[in-house]
Specification:
The complex is a heterotrimer. Chain A is built from 3 helices and no strands. By secondary structure, chain A is mainly alpha-helical. Chain A has a single domain, classed as Helix Hairpins, CATH 1.10.287. In chain A, helix 1 packs antiparallel against helix 2 and helix 2 runs antiparallel to helix 3. The longest helix of chain A has 32 residues. By secondary structure, chain B is mostly helical. In chain B, 72% of the residues lie in helices and 0% in strands. By secondary structure, chain C is mainly alpha-helical. In chain C, helix 1 packs antiparallel against helix 2. The longest helix of chain C has 40 residues. The chains are: A mainly alpha, B mainly alpha, C mainly alpha. Chains in contact: A-B, B-C.
Amino acid sequence: MTLSLQLFLASGGILWLTGLYGLWRNSDPIRRIISLNIMGSGVFLVMVTLARRETSTDPVLHALVVTGLVVAVSATAFALRLAVASQQEKR
Amino acid sequence: MAASELILDLILCLVLLSLAVAVVEVKRLYDSIILFIAFGLILSITWARLGAPDLALAEAAIGAGITGVLLMAAYANLAPKKHLQNSHRSWLAVGFSLAAMVWLVLSLIPLADSPESLVAVAEQAMADSGVTHPVTAVLLNFRAWDTLLELVVLLLALLGMQQLRLPSLKIAYPWPLLNAWGRYLAPLTIVIGGYLLWRGSSGPGGAFQSGALLAAGLIVLRLNHVIPGLSWQHAWLRCSVLCGAGFFLIIACLTAWLGQGWLDYPASYSASLIFIIEFLATISIAVTLAWLVTGQQEAAS
Amino acid sequence: MIEALSILLLWLGGAFFVIGTVGLLRFPDVYSRLHALTKADTLGLGLVILGLSLRADQLFTVLLMLFIWLLVMASSATACQLLARYQLQSDKDSSDGGK
């Protein structure tokens, strides 16, 4: 089990970095927002994996991630609206 | 047995990582959005694998479903303009990311064997939380503040969107088959959403999953022209957006004034209080998410 | 006996998914890809659910899985129809533009 957990932890870290890399290399606003979402998924993956360390899962971390998902989608919606608005301004 | 489980985990991680790399690397924006939706679905399977069914439900509905619709809508709004192509690959970024990866992975891996969590504390307090599912107990009782603030964040996102005064989603004329299926699907989402809400007190499910599902139902109905666009003019819509955070805030004030402290429910009422809060929060979340996707409908003049 | 049958059905279902994926990757145009995909969805998932319901200990679980299968079939039929019609429309548009 520990080996699996280490695998998921490492994947979470790599996901976060993939998002950061996407943020760095892409210039399109929608792609940057997607990259931010991938960074968030990496953080969630690390948190959920940490919740698995003991025999019974840790409800506090799960609850935090559920909260985080909803906050992430609200931020994404608002950011996308801003991106559309800025494009329309430029026209 | 352990070996085959490890292989499954390895495949999941590899698919997840290669999808993530493809999302940031692929040339066309449209492909990137589609791959991101697939990434959300694989992530949802990963949550189920990691023993988090609550999260798997929420991710499938919110992460893959609603975020996908939002991205598609933004893409449609920007489509006539040529998208910035990412042709150059920054080798500096690649080098930095690889170096940071080694450091990050090396510092994350030891965390796997340091069990230092709040499981014991949460289990001890479960008896007087009013519900039997630990995640719901944390969300609505022990850490109710987080949930209240989250509802406020959702409200703020909607209010911020209102300030921008953007045109609402342009919706194509729906094909008859889609229309018919949408009409069957909408009552089903209400039944399944209600089931998820009711089950939240004893098993995986709850206000967020149920709210996201109902929002998806509303969006399908809107795309089929079954319901008119959501508009700030209707008082009942304003009420349903505000009722979750509003009732939660009233309870918070009442418990501070009459009870032991902010959001410290009296033990005998906690079960029914949690249910009412969850019910109202579900309505708020469903309407707000659907509104965030479909946008403000200007009143016909 | 039932165990062996269920394993066989699960393998068959998995094989249909693999074949559908190969079709998605190898077929030339949207219509034949949709054909491959919908076969994998309905038949593959149906076989997997049949295999799993042989192992279920409650009738309720079996009914729930059947319900999921029906939902997936109906939505995949609708989605397939939508994609095919969209493709047909854009094919027509592009041939009109070429004239």
